[in-house]
């Protein structure tokens, strides 16, 4: 059972179906394009009864639900409560797609699963509190839980990411491309296919329950280096506009950037994710960034062509 049909939930549903698993993909309206081997279901999991209906009959529940940034502090705790109660009631395992927010500012230090949770932002403290609740539920024997943390997404279907809809359309058409913060700093991006592979793998390995895992993430390059790789692939220089403070740009409107302001440190210090643990434990390897960019650019070409 995959809760949430955004880029991560959709990629995960496809990956689980590819592995031969019976899959239900849940969103509020039960709508979306047909996916081979995937059944869609409508449910409002912000409500306890909706979460119960969504998880009925599940062996593993994957929580990939997210909400608009300005609503997260209010809504995500309600979702967590409903999901934990529902999963506990049906006796399923729970795999949660998580963010790097609980770490807060790391001053450029490499992030491992042992990095302290030092969030000072409201959204970071909220995520840390939820993660503590998930892990407490596991320790207390109420729900078996594993957390999979990801860096910023990149890949086919990914729009609302700093390496998504603000970058690739401009790269392909000659339009403006934002360079958030200091693009000369290393910044990890997690390929959406690796998000799916990592979560599916955690769902298949109960021995990984009760802890945080970093999902497979390619070694960090600077965003400037990634922009150069994109230039090589699209055959034109990027028209990079420096965005050195949180202000509206392209698809990121004032509401989004006002909500994101407290997290802007992610682009003014190095953001380096180490995913060695999950790679060694389960024999995984992240897709190289070059291949990830090839797939992403191909997807955006089709999107812009209206196919």
From TrEMBL:
Protein name per Swiss-Prot or TrEMBL: SDR family oxidoreductase
Highest taxon of the lineage: Bacteria
One Pfam family hit: Epimerase
Organism: Streptomyces enissocaesilis
Domain NAD-dependent epimerase/dehydratase: 4-209
